[in-house]
Amino acid sequence: MSDEKKDIKINVSSTAIEKGIDVAKSFVDKLVLPPLEELGLLVRDQMSYWRFSNQVKILNKAKYICEKNKISVKAIPPKLLCPYLENASLEDDDELQDKWAVLLVNMADSQQNIQNQVFPYILSQLSKEEFNLLESVLLERKGRVSMLNGELTDFLENRAKIEAGLMSKLADFKQELMNVSPDGKRVFSNEAMEIRSSIHSVEGELRSLHYQESTLRIRIAAPETIPEQNIKEFEMANIIRLGLAKVVYEASAGTHSIEIPGGERDRYTSVDFDIEIETETSTILTELGALFIEACQERHA
User: Would you list the domain boundaries of the chain?
Assistant: First the structure.
């Protein structure tokens, strides 16, 4: 009798386990598309096959890019390659798989020295929308910097000529002023005032000329702002969490009124004034963000 009870317990437990596996398998089939039931694989095999399939797609894409651009590949250290393959295997979006492939190519390119272990992790944490936004910001920055570099090059090439022209114009105006009022008696005449105004204008151009180079260099080095209207709040939080962007604060102060009460008996003069401080915030692309996006962009031969 005891043996029969023992057999019954074993049968019941086995049936329960089988049912549990079937339930779990049917649930995973809903999560993993397309379902792999026709292959007769278990849950673990399904996931392994799905991840392996993603790896194969990405590796084939990377191979094609290398051949197209005639890239000479180098060995990638296991501590960099293993986490890359682990994270890449979870990506099934075709557009992001392209980014994974390009990242692998750039890491394997013998002409480059990309050995950053954090890049695969960062890419695994981004949605397609987040990546595309960062890429558009970087492209905007490159376009702006290219334009400003062109302006700086033109300025440096023509600076001496521009400065010489302004100095010549200034000398002419000063001579003209001397001709109008050689003895200084007509120094306040309308004609003299107009010439003096022209002199001040040219002197202002000369002063601004001295600051133009530094102004252009500051504008070139300025970080690119991420347009917050094009991204959801939780997406921005994720980008900041990964160190691809950061929030910067800019404070400005303004004086509204100044009152200086006075009197015959006042020993000290007191000044009362109101100051309004305004703080503006913006989110900018970090250096890490720019380097990461560039690492996921294809270098053409």
Answer: 32-126, 131-221, 228-292
